[in-house]
């Protein structure tokens, strides 16, 4: 559209049959409609996404900066024209019909298929839209929901809280109401998404009250929302993250195992803490051969003072820590890459400082908050004060990140108002974002490397800072599968980095080794892996569950470390395309309605299907295979898709399957990132048709990847007429990776006749002799061909198997 304003007067038929006056004004990407019932603004973001704001007034709300970080878009090519019953806006991808009195829209794609239609709306008091729900429509997203994967037919309340229902003794929450990280966003299997751009508590009636309609409403504020056209879930998530921010790359070490510790004394055992306990823990982990890279100390490192007790933070170590600096130095000397501490947002006085008094005097805490002493993280000056006077006390000692617990703390008396236009309810939901942003950015600048922050609560946009964990769920079987579901839902809500306490967090019942093992197996195939529990005096340390549990823990932990090239490459893919690291099967198979109900299987990256065992003492579990072909990770068995099949599940085995066409890069097992040079990349491949994979490499720490300083190695596989060709290109890009050779394991049904490398015949070698010697072998039992090439990533490698 041209940038000049123009005005058109149209007469259209209102709901009451009387002709109503309607005018509109166009400027660049914005169309403002006016009528006697109020105004509506449509802002075009691109050809598949637009923003709608309905107002009873002659003005629209100011743009906020906490949820949405992008409001300026390139010029969109669109047209506005009058039609019989309103106006129509057309782009290359969609048609928007605008009706007035009240303002309603409907959206069609270019072949005139109805995608979305509003039937009623309210723009005062409690803003609301009612929409047509199609007979076979389903809804996914809404944040970290533990209740259901498909919310069709359900009622959902979104507000940062621990839940409003009855709370059990263990775990302290109700999965139907828990809302550590609500996100007012959903995706429909009909190829569109709605992002309700509000920080007010929202309610979503997704067919509970009416079988053919759904509504979304807020307790206050404006009716301000974005419509996003798909058709794919990935394209919808990409546009959503265009608005709210992408998932950045974490430091490479953060893709390894994170260990949390109470330093020997959890709640009510604080006097048992010592600065020697974390040192001994690190030594034991290294002695047992448990791979890990990050360590943080939870709550009880802090001095608990009289004003707020364990709820405040004075940034002083307890008196039981005799030499914290020596402790931190010893931890780093044992190859821990990043050390962190648990904090709270509430300032308290210590034995040697008066942080609370100083914060009040400096005016950096929120006045009238229910809990006095909460830092105003919305104010950059308050954040600077907090960093300089609080966090620097520990950052200067070598602490590289913090765990920002209790982000739902900010509450105000009812009716409290604030200058910036935010209500008390809105500030409550936005606070977790501001709280996580502050240390993420401050540590990033101070450490001169990628930021890291570990937070519990969140809201739309929290994915920028960069991960949340699922909160304090009890060590009980009843919480296990709901936690998996929460991870799938939050991934569909734009938060790609997510973690949970492996084995659960709170434990009041007898120890359950079976649950511990099963939960840890799942945890090693989660976007972020965290081992942490408050079960004094064991704290989920794997050797306390016996030698078999320890061996299984190390087995899966080691597998994760071998998969770092695969995981890291998928993390970069998430940064570029928004595909979560952990996706429900419906993400890749939206036309298969059976996948809508499966929340105990998921894709880890693009090629691996993970099937946690969530039943106590299970000797087997059924697995559903979507379309295509699959291969058993453990046995090499080939499985046709579109069927259910049961598999044996001994305690050390969690079913894992590889999708046809898969190319999975691996490295040798390590005790920590960088323990040894990666001089060989192992490629696990399931040849089928034509497939490809981009192996991503960078320096693992800096922000240079945002300046395109990285390398991509393109790997292409083609199986045709019984001949398989694999091509590994030279790395391309501004980053020069270390030199490494390649080893290939490919699932191959029968022993090959010939294997060629760059046109030359490779010799066959006995399977046990295939070490550094170039050649190939065949594993009859697993149905795999192994190929070792001495060519490196300085060469183009072309292999042919026939």
What can you see in these coordinates?
The protein is an alpha+beta fold and 802 residues long. The protein is 17% helix and 30% strand. A 9-stranded antiparallel β-sheet has the order 1-2-3-4-5-18-15-14-12. A 9-stranded antiparallel β-sheet has the order 6-7-8-9-10-11-17-16-13, with no helix packed on it. β31 and β32 form a beta hairpin. α2 runs parallel beside α3 and α5 crosses α6. The longest helix has 24 residues. It is globular and about 85 Å long. The protein starts with 6 loop residues before the first strand and ends with a strand.
Features:
alpha+beta, nine-stranded antiparallel β-sheet, globular, 802 residues, 10 helices
Architecture blueprint of SSEs:
Elements: E1 7-13, E2 19-27, E3 30-35, E4 38-46, E5 49-55, E6 79-83, E7 86-90, E8 94-99, E9 104-109, E10 114-122, E11 128-132, E12 139-143, E13 155-158, E14 182-188, E15 192-196, E16 202-205, E17 213-218, E18 223-229, H1 233-244, E19 257-261, H2 276-288, E20 294-297, H3 324-333, E21 338-343, H4 355-362, H5 380-395, E22 401-404, H6 424-447, E23 454-455, E24 467-469, H7 477-491, E25 497-499, H8 513-523, E26 529-531, H9 547-562, H10 564-577, E27 582-583, E28 602-604, E29 608-610, E30 620-625, E31 629-632, E32 638-640, E33 643-648, E34 656-659, E35 663-666, E36 680-685, E37 690-697, E38 711-720, E39 723-728, E40 732-733, E41 741-747, E42 755-757, E43 760-761, E44 775-779, E45 784-792, E46 797-801
Parallel strand pairs: 19-20, 19-26, 20-21, 21-22, 22-23, 23-24, 24-25, 36-41
Antiparallel strand pairs: 1-2, 2-3, 3-4, 4-5, 5-18, 6-7, 7-8, 8-9, 9-10, 10-11, 11-17, 12-14, 13-16, 14-15, 15-18, 16-17, 27-28, 28-29, 29-34, 30-33, 31-32, 31-34, 35-36, 37-38, 38-39, 38-40, 39-46, 41-45, 42-43, 42-46, 44-45
């Amino acid at each position: 559209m041209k940038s000049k304003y123009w005005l058109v007067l149209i007469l259209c038929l209102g709901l009451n049959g009387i002709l109503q006056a309607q005018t509109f004004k166009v400027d660049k990407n914005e169309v403002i409609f006016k009528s006697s019932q109020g105004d509506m603004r449509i802002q075009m973001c691109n050809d598949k996404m637009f923003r709608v704001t309905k107002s009873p007034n002659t003005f629209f709300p100011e743009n906020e900066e906490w949820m949405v970080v992008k409001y300026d878009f390139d010029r969109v090519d669109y047209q506005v024209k009058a039609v019989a019953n309103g106006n129509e806006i057309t782009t290359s991808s969609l048609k928007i019909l605008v009706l007035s009195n009240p303002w309603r829209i409907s959206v069609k794609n270019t072949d005139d298929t109805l995608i979305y239609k509003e039937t009623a709306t309210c723009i005062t008091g409690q803003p609301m839209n009612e929409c047509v729900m199609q007979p076979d429509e389903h809804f996914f997203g809404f944040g970290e929901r533990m209740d259901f994967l498909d919310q069709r037919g359900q009622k959902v309340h979104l507000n940062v809280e621990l839940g409003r229902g009855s709370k059990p003794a263990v775990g302290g929450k109700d999965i139907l109401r828990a809302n550590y990280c609500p996100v007012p966003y959903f995706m429909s299997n009909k190829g569109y998404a709605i992002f309700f751009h509000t920080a007010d508590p929202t309610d979503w009636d997704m067919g509970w009250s009416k079988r053919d309609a759904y509504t979304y409403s807020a307790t206050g504020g404006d009716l301000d929302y974005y419509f996003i056209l798909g058709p794919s879930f990935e394209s919808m998530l990409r546009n959503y993250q265009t608005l709210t921010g992408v998932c950045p790359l974490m430091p490479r070490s953060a893709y390894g195992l994170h260990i949390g510790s109470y330093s020997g004394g959890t709640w009510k055992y604080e006097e048992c803490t010592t600065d020697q306990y974390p040192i001994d823990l690190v030594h034991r982990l290294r002695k047992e051969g448990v791979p890990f890279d990050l360590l943080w100390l939870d709550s009880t490192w802090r001095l608990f003072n009289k004003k707020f007790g364990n709820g405040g933070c004075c940034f002083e170590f307890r008196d039981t820590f005799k030499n914290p600096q020596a402790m931190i130095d010893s931890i780093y000397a044992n190859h821990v890459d990043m050390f962190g501490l648990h904090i709270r947002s509430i300032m308290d006085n210590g034995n040697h400082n008066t942080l609370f008094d100083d914060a009040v005097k400096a005016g950096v805490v929120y006045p009238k908050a229910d809990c006095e002493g909460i830092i105003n993280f919305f104010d950059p000056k308050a954040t600077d004060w907090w960093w300089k006077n609080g966090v620097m006390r520990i950052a200067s000692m070598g602490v590289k990140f913090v765990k920002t617990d209790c982000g739902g703390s900010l509450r105000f008396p009812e009716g409290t108002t604030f200058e910036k236009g935010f209500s008390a309810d809105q500030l409550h939901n936005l606070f977790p974002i501001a709280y996580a942003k502050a240390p993420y950015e401050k540590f990033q600048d101070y450490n001169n490397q990628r930021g890291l922050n570990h937070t519990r609560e969140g809201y739309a946009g929290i994915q920028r800072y960069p991960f949340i964990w699922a909160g304090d769920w009890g060590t009980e079987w009843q919480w296990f599968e709901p936690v998996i579901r929460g991870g799938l839902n939050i991934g569909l809500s734009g938060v790609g980095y997510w973690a949970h306490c492996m084995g659960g967090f709170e434990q009041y019942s007898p120890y359950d080794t079976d649950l511990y093992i099963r939960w840890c197996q799942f945890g090693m195939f989660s976007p972020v892996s965290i081992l942490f529990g408050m079960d004094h005096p064991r704290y989920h340390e794997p050797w306390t569950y016996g030698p078999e549990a320890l061996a299984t823990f190390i087995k899966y932990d080691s597998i994760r470390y071998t998969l770092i090239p695969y995981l890291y490459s998928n993390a970069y893919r998430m940064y570029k395309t928004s595909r979560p690291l952990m996706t429900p099967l419906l993400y890749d198979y939206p036309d298969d309605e059976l996948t809508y109900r499966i929340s105990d299987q998921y894709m880890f990256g693009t090629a691996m299907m993970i099937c946690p065992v969530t039943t106590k003492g299970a000797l087997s579990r059924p697995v559903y295979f979507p379309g295509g072909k699959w291969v058993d990770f453990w046995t090499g068995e080939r499985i046709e898709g579109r069927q259910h099949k049961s598999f044996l599940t001994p305690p050390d085995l969690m079913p894992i399957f590889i999708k046809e066409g898969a190319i999975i890069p691996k490295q040798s097992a390590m005790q920590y990132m960088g323990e040894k040079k990666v001089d060989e990349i192992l490629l696990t491949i399931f040849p089928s048709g034509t497939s490809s994979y981009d192996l991503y490499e960078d320096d693992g720490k800096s922000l240079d990847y945002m300046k395109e300083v990285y390398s991509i190695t393109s790997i292409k596989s083609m199986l045709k007429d019984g001949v398989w060709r694999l091509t590994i290109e030279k790395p391309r890009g501004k980053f020069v990776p270390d030199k490494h050779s390649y080893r290939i394991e490919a699932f191959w049904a029968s022993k090959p006749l010939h294997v060629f490398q760059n046109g030359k015949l490779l010799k066959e070698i006995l399977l046990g002799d295939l070490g550094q010697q170039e050649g190939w072998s065949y594993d009859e039992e697993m149905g795999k061909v192994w190929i070792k090439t001495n060519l490196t990533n300085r060469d183009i490698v072309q292999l042919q198997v026939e």
